[in-house]
Design goal:
11 strands; globular; single chain; about 300 residues
Length: about 300
């Protein structure tokens, strides 16, 4: 099954690098693609001209396939969707919404669309509208998460759709890859471990926070407002959770206050290195990440571990 997704996308290893806002830019994406995986540039809420520059940087750094992730709630989503077609990017991953309105345009441009999905129902919908594959992301992942664990979500989606399923959330080594394949996945998406890649632009404070993390160091904030986020525990998350507790006791919680509490917090952590008041988004596998490596070293180590497990 892994061979199928590799053949479909033209990659060597069935390993995707997560599309992480403020983190997944051209340098990291091209390094992952050059190492045989699928590098992904994260558009986040950035304007189209910024993403255009990143795409052209990646084209100059690799002749291998790479993808661009579109965050569909972005005010620039329409422009970025068109940009990807104009720039000849042939693989798109999507999140935070449905790419349905872009599917005809993507199909005409020969773009392969791979949405991130948190449930069986959404996976079925994506398959119906013509998705090439889906990324089934469990709540073990860092950043914005759903309600189901990877172990429960992946096999249910595999049984529900007839397109390849990429497992994400809680995967950081070859054992995780083997588990994902055993569940029926055709590939994996890895985020947290690639944050500490040498090619990643994340501030060293952010990388060191992940490297030093223990098994129970992640917490979930924003659940009361319906937008749960997993990040490493720090002063910011403590304040956020206290705010949520206070609002939960009210007859009418101020959901807007909760939703806007951490505005700009990810940038503070990634760019400024403020790992106390910023949002250090990381998955539950952070404790399994022990050192900084190149993207090539990460992929080769993971695949080598997988081959030993398989043997």
């Amino acid at each position: 099954m892994s061979k199928d997704i590799c053949d479909i996308l033209g990659i060597e290893y069935p390993i995707f690098q997560g599309g992480m806002a403020w983190i997944s830019e051209a340098g990291l994406a091209s390094a992952v693609s050059n190492a045989g995986g699928l590098g992904i540039i994260a558009a986040g809420a950035a304007p189209a001209d910024v993403i255009k520059e990143e795409i052209r940087k990646a084209k100059g750094a690799t002749d291998k396939p790479f993808a661009v992730n579109i965050m569909l709630m972005s005010p620039h989503a329409d422009e970025i969707a068109q940009l990807r077609c104009d720039e000849g990017v042939k693989i798109v991953t999507t999140g935070a919404g449905s790419p349905a309105k872009y599917m005809e345009m993507f199909a005409a441009a020969g773009v392969k669309v791979i949405p991130v999905v948190p449930s069986v129902a959404i996976a079925k919908k994506m398959a119906r509208i013509g998705a090439t594959a889906v990324i089934a992301e469990g709540m073990e992942a860092g950043g914005h998460i759903g309600k189901l664990t990877t172990m429960a979500l992946v096999p249910q989606i595999v049984d529900a759709v007839d397109i390849p399923v990429i497992a994400a959330g809680g995967i950081a080594d070859g054992r995780g890859v083997a588990a994902a394949f055993a569940l029926g996945a055709s590939g994996v998406q890895i985020g947290t471990r690639f944050v500490v890649a040498r090619e990643c632009i994340a501030h060293d404070n952010y990388k060191q926070a992940i490297i030093k993390a223990k098994d129970i160091d992640t917490v979930i904030t924003g659940a009361i407002a319906g937008h749960p986020v997993r990040a490493l525990r720090n002063r910011m998350t403590s304040k956020f959770l206290e705010l949520e507790r206070e609002e939960a006791l009210k007859e009418k919680p101020d959901l807007e206050k909760i939703e806007t509490f951490a505005a700009g917090a990810l940038r503070r952590a990634v760019v400024d290195g403020d790992v106390a008041e910023g949002s250090v988004m990381a998955g539950q596998v952070a404790a399994m990440v022990s050192k900084e490596q190149t993207a090539k070293e990460i992929i080769e180590e993971i695949w080598g571990q997988y081959m030993k497990v398989r043997a």
